[in-house]
Design brief:
- The chain is mainly α.
- The protein is built from 22 helices and 4 strands.
- Among the domains are: 100 residues, Arc Repressor Mutant, subunit A (Orthogonal Bundle), CATH 1.10.10; 83 residues; 103 residues, no CATH class.
- Strand 3 and strand 4 form a beta hairpin.
- Helix 2 crosses helix 4.
- It is extended, with a radius of gyration of 37 Å.
- The relative contact order is 0.06.
């Protein structure tokens, strides 16, 4: 029901196609993509593919036509479209006019089976959706090359040809040579500097482990399983072989084990996000979001930078010391704090300790925050404020409550005895007077001896 009204039946659409379809694209759709996104999304893709033949010029058809073709309500067609976009089979462009909007659906070719299994993220998702036995059947079917091809000795382009070095400054970004290849700087989602320092400290060759292919794999597994940087770092160390190479299968298993221990779930599956509920939660991460207060600006910054970057910013651009980074890494690993929460902790400790990082102080607070299960910078800042306010209140309003005096049950015979003793005391000479008389006797005795 939440998707009703996202698009209207009267609004138009056109279909374009980018690339070329692999020969066995239908097998890829039905046996590899369909378990992930469902039959309706695949049906929409195939319907739009066939629509290409019926398009006449630039005339747009209405979505009401698409509803009739698929015999589905428009909200279900919209959800199917979103799934195609998410899995990488469709791009959608919207053109608003005064009357009605028009959409351009740019279809993208699916992976051929061999390419699909070469994509670690898609292959891992399919494994969890259809199970190990079915997965192995499909994989063996699409990789049934019955002979060993030997070592790849194919000459590369640079080994055969000599070319000039083009001036890439005059090339548009989309047309830059090699833009589709893996490069060392193609993974902005992960700060690999931390991992490089960890490997260097353990005398492990960084370039041998963090190759472009491995960085792509690490990035995919991190996003797939929702792991923090320190967890991915731990998985990499677990999966290193004796030759200091990364075992892909062991790394995937390590990531999955970490996912299970975190969420207590047997497996992962593609599930649809609730767009409406996610909108408020993630508004701070949207590109057009502009914080209005200094606190909002600080929260946005702490959510999106690494602890290393935070230390360097607070050091006026200076390089963070290896000792501080090691201390922070140990606290994060031990207490399991996400990077945004760790950033708030670093900021808080520096403010409280005259810009010095104390490991003991940091561990004490981190342990408390870990038990509070803080996940975002906003949560951590609110929690820190609340704790500081409570501390100030206790400091300004000290309370020393008196211990309650317990009433003892006194028996009647004790009361009678006490009463008689009081009467006897009243009849006897005053105690002070008796003491004075006794002192006078002592003086007389002393004078007599002299």
């Amino acid at each position: 029901m939440r998707d009703i009204g996202k698009i209207l039946p009267i609004e138009g659409y056109r279909v374009t196609f980018k690339g070329s379809l692999p020969v066995d694209y239908t097998t890829s759709l039905t046996h590899l993509y369909q378990p992930l996104i469902g039959v309706r999304a695949i049906s929409l893709y195939q319907t739009l593919i066939n629509e290409l033949a019926f398009q006449k010029g630039s005339a747009a058809q209405t979505h009401h036509t698409l509803m009739n073709y698929m015999n589905l309500p428009l909200d279900q067609i919209y959800r199917s479209r979103i799934k195609l976009e998410g899995i990488g089979l469709l791009k959608t462009f919207e053109q608003k006019t005064d009357e009605n909007g028009t959409y351009t659906y740019e279809l993208l070719p699916p992976f051929a089976p061999a390419e699909f299994f070469a994509d670690d993220m898609l292959a891992q998702l399919l494994y969890h959706h259809i199970g190990e036995s079915k997965f192995q059947v499909l994989k063996e079917h699409f990789h049934s090359y019955g002979f060993d091809k030997g070592t790849n000795i194919t000459a590369s382009f640079n080994e055969v040809f000599q070319t000039f070095q083009p001036d890439t400054n005059h090339l548009p970004d989309s047309e830059a040579p090699g833009s589709g290849q893996l490069t060392e700087d193609s993974y902005p989602s992960i700060d690999f500097t931390w991992m490089e320092q960890t490997l260097q400290q353990q005398m492990i060759p960084v370039k041998k482990v963090l190759t472009a292919v491995n960085k792509r794999l690490i990035s995919q597994m991190m996003n797939l399983y929702g792991l923090a940087e320190f967890e991915v770092e731990k998985a990499v160390l677990w999966a290193l072989t004796e030759e200091n190479t990364l075992s892909v299968s062991e790394f995937k298993e390590a990531c999955h084990d970490l996912f299970q221990s975190k969420h207590n779930e047997p497996s992962i599956r593609l599930t649809e996000k609730n767009v409406n509920s996610e909108q408020n939660t993630n508004e701070a991460h949207e590109p057009d979001y502009k914080p209005t207060t200094k606190e909002e600006q600080l929260i946005l910054k702490l959510e999106n930078i690494s602890p290393r970057q935070l230390l360097e910013d607070l050091s006026s651009g200076g390089q963070a010391s290896g000792q501080d980074l090691k201390m922070i890494r140990e606290v994060m690993t031990t207490q399991g704090l996400p990077s945004p929460v760790m950033n708030v902790l670093i900021h808080y400790v520096l403010l409280q300790s005259d810009m010095k990082l104390s490991k003991a102080y940091m561990e004490t607070i981190a342990s408390h925050w870990s038990r509070a299960n803080l996940q975002t910078a906003r949560d951590a800042m609110a929690f820190a404020k609340n704790q500081k306010a409570q501390y100030q209140e206790r400091k300004n309003n000290p309370k020393n409550p008196r211990k309650p005096v317990s009433k003892e049950v006194v028996p009647d015979w004790f009361k009678e005895r006490k009463k008689k003793k009081a009467e006897t005391t009243q009849n006897s000479p005053n105690t002070a007077q008796r003491n004075e008389e006794f002192a006078a006797l002592l003086r007389e005795f002393s004078n007599g001896k002299q």
